[in-house]
Design a protein that fits this description.
Length: 403
């Protein structure tokens, strides 16, 4: 069973084709700058394997449809193709950021699902229109091939109302569905299952705090394998300090800025999403640059790193309180998987909560799932590489089997 995973944005399409008999990635790539004067397609055959091969196309790509035609051309190309024809693709799995409270599980895409995604655009104005463009094109180009929508929000649909409600007038929830949804659910869900396997425990008996620390960052309290709280809110802005997103801020700042600086809602929205976080504090949004700047004595970079660690520790502490018993902390995504300093900063001073790192294991550069806790740590500390594409492909395959 070959499954094509698509993550379609407003001007880009990321894709991966997996052979689910052994979960091997046959090819992957990105189509970028759709609709701009010049588009670019980067295609990798057998990525990460010894036979890896790369193809780059630079040409105008006026629409998602044109982009998908190029992708299908490369996938089925007589010389470089990995399948004979598009009929060899069993199903397509689509990443969808916002499923609101309309979707509490992955589902086969039909007209009703498309209508639901359209209805949810106000809750995900940046993401859902791009996903819809990808879904529409894929349905046209692959008529009869099952298409599955996999939502970032679904994993968090198990949160209780006390965790997902905002203390705002109740009618805002009733009329506009204003509540916490949480994001990165495909990642939190994937590492939850992998962590349970690693610990040798049934997932339904596993309590975790999962830290997805990347360009966007979020934390999740997982009780018995289910999300019971998470840091992101109605959008992926709330919670932790991120590359360019502020995370938690007193919302009273926004009317203050409107008054003091005459900023519009759109300008404030742009500022908190694109000009804040690490970038707002020290001008850099890539963690590697921040470490270099700290080493060179940059005080703002050091402040950004201090704030990041402190915010993470505050949430770890609060999720220990939420969960009671914690089996493991799980670090994942670009920073979580690769940055030992970020991991130290996120767990420092928590020995009294049973969280104790082994500094040598933490420094080791090995890949793959690993335990970096000290032998006498009551709570295990795991590093588990996330794989959202594989999770989407697994859910797509699972749904096909169930239907
Ligand atoms: P992601 O959004 O998961 O791709 O993660 C992107 C973030 O991971 C960026 O802030 C990168 O600086 C960070 N990152 C990637 N590799 C490393 C590394 N080796 N050390 C520290 N940070 C890293």
């Amino acid at each position: 069973m070959d499954i094509l995973v698509i993550n379609s944005g407003s001007s880009s399409i990321k894709y991966q084709l997996l052979d689910m008999s052994d979960e091997r990635v046959l090819c992957s790539g990105t189509v970028e700058r759709i609709g701009e004067a010049m588009g670019v397609l980067n295609h990798k055959i057998a990525p990460g394997a010894p036979g890896e091969d790369k193809i780059t196309l630079t040409e105008p790509i006026p629409s998602h449809e044109a982009g998908m035609h190029l992708v299908i051309g490369l996938i089925t190309d007589a010389e470089h193709g990995v399948v004979k024809s598009k009929a060899d693709i069993t199903a397509i799995g689509h990443r969808v950021v916002q499923g609101g409270d309309l979707f509490d599980q992955s589902c086969l895409v039909d007209d009703t699902v498309v209508a639901g995604l359209e209805k949810l655009i106000p809750l995900a104005p940046v993401h859902n229109p791009g996903h819809l463009a990808g879904i529409r094109v894929a349905r046209e180009l692959f008529p009869g091939t099952p298409q599955v929508a996999v939502f970032d929000t679904v994993f968090h649909q198990t949160m209780p109302p006390r965790a997902y409600m905002y203390a705002l007038p109740y009618e805002l929830y009733e009329e506009l569905k204003v509540r916490r949804y949480g994001f990165h659910g495909t990642s939190h869900g994937y590492v939850t299952k992998e962590a349970a396997k690693f610990l040798g425990k049934p997932v339904e008996e596993t309590n975790l705090i999962t830290l997805h620390l990347g360009n966007g960052s979020s934390m999740c309290a997982v009780k018995g394998g289910h999300s019971v709280d998470t840091t992101m809110g109605i959008t992926p802005l709330e919670g932790l300090i991120m590359g360019t997103r502020s995370g938690d801020v007193d919302p009273a700042v926004y009317p203050l800025l409107a008054q003091a600086r005459g900023m519009s809602i759109q300008q404030i929205d742009d500022m908190v999403n694109k000009q804040s976080g690490f970038k707002g504090i020290c001008g850099m949004n890539d963690m590697r640059d921040i470490h270099d700047a700290v080493a060179a004595g940059d005080a703002r970079a050091k402040l950004a790193l201090d704030m990041f660690g402190y915010r993470n520790r505050k949430y770890v502490g609060s999720y220990v309180a939420v969960l009671g018993r914690v089996d493991a902390l799980v670090f994942t995504a670009g920073i979580g998987e690769n940055d030992p300093v970020a991991r130290v900063l996120s767990c420092r001073g928590m020995e009294h909560l049973g969280i104790k790192l082994d500094h040598e294991r933490n420094q080791a550069t090995e890949r793959g799932a690993r335990d970096i806790a000290a032998p006498d740590s009551a709570v295990r500390v795991l590093v588990i590489p996330t794989n959202e594409e594989l999770e989407i492909a697994r859910q797509t395959a699972g749904l096909l089997r169930d239907n």
